[in-house]
Amino acid sequence: MKNILLAAGISALLLFPLSACGDVSRQSEISQEIQLDLSGGTQVSDYDTHSGNGDGISCAAFDFSEHPLTPELEASPGWTSFPVSTTAKALAYGISDENSSTGPYLTDGDGVPLVPVIQNGYYLLVDRQQDSQEPLLDRYSLNFTIALYDTDSDLLYVCRMDT
What's 113's DSSP letter? Predict the structure, then answer.
């Protein structure tokens, strides 16, 4: 009986760490999505309105003041230096002229943009609805991820919208 209890206890101790491997941190999940190692940063905010059906907006911010990302972003083919494209600007900040306005799409419940205006940096826009023939801003549903890195403050914002 002692041997059975001892074997059960050892098995439980060995299996417990393996069960923890299934838990993926928000930072690791975002790292995988934007294909960038975020382990050198500290998460400073996390906003998420995704519901049970998967629709919603999320935006997380990471501080990289201890380990700036600029060298990695300069070498990464998916990242583009500022200024942002018209589409990225509409999504994050909104655009307008004398006839119309579009966006911002990434806002909190009060309509306040989730990402502050960034003057210098890099960005990545991932269209997760690539099978659509329409331009992203002309669609009825939006499924995208945008990451914006501020080289002046070393803050990275990663936002996702699913409709």
Answer: B
From residue 50, alpha-carbon distances to 47, 54, 57, 162 in Å are 9, 6, 6, 8
Q: d(Cα 136, Cα 34) in Å, to the nearest integer?
A: 18
Our CA angle for 46, 48, 51, nearest 5°, is 160
Q: Do strands 42-48 and 56-63 pair parallel, antiparallel, or not at all (unpaired)?
A: antiparallel
Q: Which residues contact 44 (CB under 8 A, 6 or more apart)?
A: 61, 62, 63, 155
Hey, what are 10's tokens?
A: 């050892």
Q: How far apart are CA 80 and CA 95, in angstroms?
A: 20
pLDDT digits (tens, 9 = 90+) for 19-54: 444 445 778 888 888 889 898 999 999 888 887 788
pLDDT tens for 78-109 read: 999 999 999 999 999 988 888 888 878 898 88
Please answer whether residues 39 and 30 qualify as being in contact, where contact means their C-beta atoms are separated by less than 8 angstroms.
no
Written as one letter, the residue type at 32 is: Q
Taking a C-beta distance cutoff of 8 angstroms, is the pair 34, 126 a contact?
A: yes
Selection from 140, 118, 141 nearest residue 128 by Cα = 141
Spatial separation of the C-alpha atoms in residues 46 and 133, rounded to whole Å: 32
